[in-house]
Specification:
binds iron/sulfur cluster; TIM Barrel; binds S-adenosylmethionine; 2 domains; 22 helices; alpha/beta
């Protein structure tokens, strides 16, 4: 459909999306929780911490307490590489304390690339007439799942949608139902998707209630940039996304719609990274103060090149690799309980280095073209992709590398199915208890994956790691060992989806 006609027929849908009363109810005396000037004042007035203060800040982070903005700003000021090295060591210790040596893995799944918004950095923006637009039918969605589950072995997805009447809440619900319905025979058992997380446009509370009922795990919305002036520049006025506050309160509405697992994030490169890291902390603190629960995950993508999109070519605030590593360390220290997601947008080398900075989740075998898992034609079709990936390695090779480095890949999705979410999980994460449950479930799901999908080489390396892990469970968690080993044996015998 020609651009003008398309825009006209969508207008009434667009006009009905934003519910002003669902913004106003959260503002305090008309103000939001991102005070741009105050953030810059805190940053500008911050001083490098003395050794004594630094020790106190790091002790607080090790105790899994959220940092104050002044503390974070003081860490941002540090310019001695030796001190950054020390911060990285503490970051990884916190990761180990809260999440142990496991890395959760997932796959992104793009179901449609129609979008009424016009974000300047995104290949799916509506003015990008070169993009081939497509929405998967329910049968096509099921085919994608058959590939993801049957060929690769994924159990957890982040499902991504553009914002468009064709992919509204009804489509989202229907596709999620379809995703959960697919079961595939595997080498030694059966596979299915056990957790669907959603990255979609901000929604009204009524739509979020519907979404929650569909059985999704985490609801993710990235603010892109928290800096209002920049936000306005990259999200044209008159688009839904052009409304900063509708997006800023997406997670408040999610909590009010019944969610207790939410994911926040910023798209790094749009504005000064120092401001964005501070703002992410303000967001986390606001959620903690209002709902008693902070973000389940924080994402920190950097802008990647996108098809027919020149935006990235002259990026004023492009984030260098060394600053990107600082961002990861700072997020881990500032919001110690949060899950940190690093995606295949980043290249192999950065992904390897990020492991030593405290990340907890990553994807592999990822395809970001619509229909790209099941249809060979779509795999390399840049006209259907949102941006370009930096790491196209298979799940098998990523898992093998992780295992060589001593990390166990977890496909565990038990937490949200046994009520370990929201306030419950906050407590478990802070006390290090979640790490223990997850360790057991990580081993069980890793066993499943090795038996069903691993190449002989990966299996051999994985087996060695599992042996070591089982000994550790026996020694450190004697009370849980019997139940655990019972499940483990059953899984070896072909039973699936057993969790503690
Ligand atoms: N359309 C929904 C929205 O904008 O919230 C959700 C899906 S959008 C496809 C998911 C995320 O991709 C965006 O929030 C943005 O941060 C990220 N993204 C968009 N363009 C990108 C680019 N060129 N490079 C890296 N990430 C990008
Ligand atoms: Fe649409 Fe999201 Fe891309 Fe913006 S980032 S154009 S809202 S898909």
């Amino acid at each position: 459909m020609p651009l003008q006609q398309d825009a006209k027929s969508n207008k009434s849908w667009i006009d009905s999306r934003i519910k002003q009363e669902e913004i106003d109810k959260y503002l305090k005396n008309g103000s939001d929780f991102i005070p741009d000037e105050e953030i810059w004042d805190v940053l500008n007035n911050a001083k490098k911490p003395s050794p004594k203060i630094l020790k106190q800040i790091l002790a607080k982070a090790m105790a899994v307490e959220t940092m104050s903005p002044v503390e974070l700003a003081s860490l941002i000021k540090i310019d001695d590489p030796k001190v950054w090295k020390k911060l990285a060591q503490v970051a990884v210790k916190i990761k180990k304390r809260v999440y142990d040596n496991r890395i959760v893995t997932f796959a992104p799944l793009y179901l449609g690339n129609f979008c009424v918004n016009d974000c300047k950095y995104c290949g799916f923006r509506r003015s990008n007439t070169e993009v081939k637009r497509e929405i998967l039918s329910i049968d096509e969605v099921k085919k994608e799942i058959e590939s993801l589950v049957g060929k690769i072995g994924h159990k957890r997805l982040i499902v991504v949608y553009g914002e468009h009447p064709k992919t509204d809440i009804d489509y989202i619900k229907e596709t999620i139902r379809a995703i959960y319905s697919v079961k595939v025979k595997t080498r030694n058992g059966e596979g299915n998707i056990r957790r669907v997380n959603v990255n979609a446009a901000p929604m009204s509370i009524a739509d979020l209630k519907e979404l929650k009922k569909a059985g999704i795990g985490t609801f993710q919305v990235f603010q892109e940039t928290y800096h209002k002036e920049t936000y306005k520049k990259v999200h044209p006025e008159g688009t839904i996304k052009g409304n900063y506050h509708w997006r800023l309160y997406a997670m408040h509405r999610a909590f009010d719609g019944g969610f207790d697992d939410v994911g926040i994030g910023a798209l790094f490169g749009l504005y000064d990274w120092r401001f964005e890291v501070m703002a992410l902390l303000y967001h986390a603190r606001e959620l903690e103060a209002t709902f008693g629960i902070g973000p389940h995950t924080i994402s920190f993508p950097r802008i990647e090149p996108a098809f027919n999109t020149i935006f990235r070519d002259n990026l004023k605030y492009k984030v260098s690799d060394s600053d990107f590593k600082k961002i990861m360390i700072l997020i881990r220290l500032a919001v110690p309980y949060t899950g940190m997601i690093l995606t295949a947008r980043e290249n192999e080398k950065m992904r390897r280095e990020a492991l030593a900075l405290g990340i907890t989740q990553t994807d592999a075998s990822s395809k970001i073209g619509v229909g790209a898992y099941s249809n060979e034609e779509n795999i390399q079709n840049k006209k259907k992709e949102q941006f370009v990936l930096g790491d196209s390695r298979s799940l098998d090779s990523v898992i093998q590398e992780l295992a060589r480095m001593g990390y166990i890949t977890s496909f565990c999705t038990a937490g949200y199915r046994c009520g370990r979410t929201g306030k419950n999980i906050m407590e478990l994460l802070k006390t290090g208890t979640e790490g223990k449950f997850c360790k057991l479930n990580a081993i069980l799901t890793f066993r499943e994956w090795l038996d069903d999908f691993a190449s002989p080489e990966t299996k051999e390396i994985g087996e060695k790691l599992i042996k070591k892990e089982i000994l550790e469970v026996k020694k450190k968690m004697p009370k849980m060992y019997k139940a655990f080993i019972n499940y483990y044996r059953k899984i070896e015998g072909g039973e699936r989806d057993l969790f503690l």
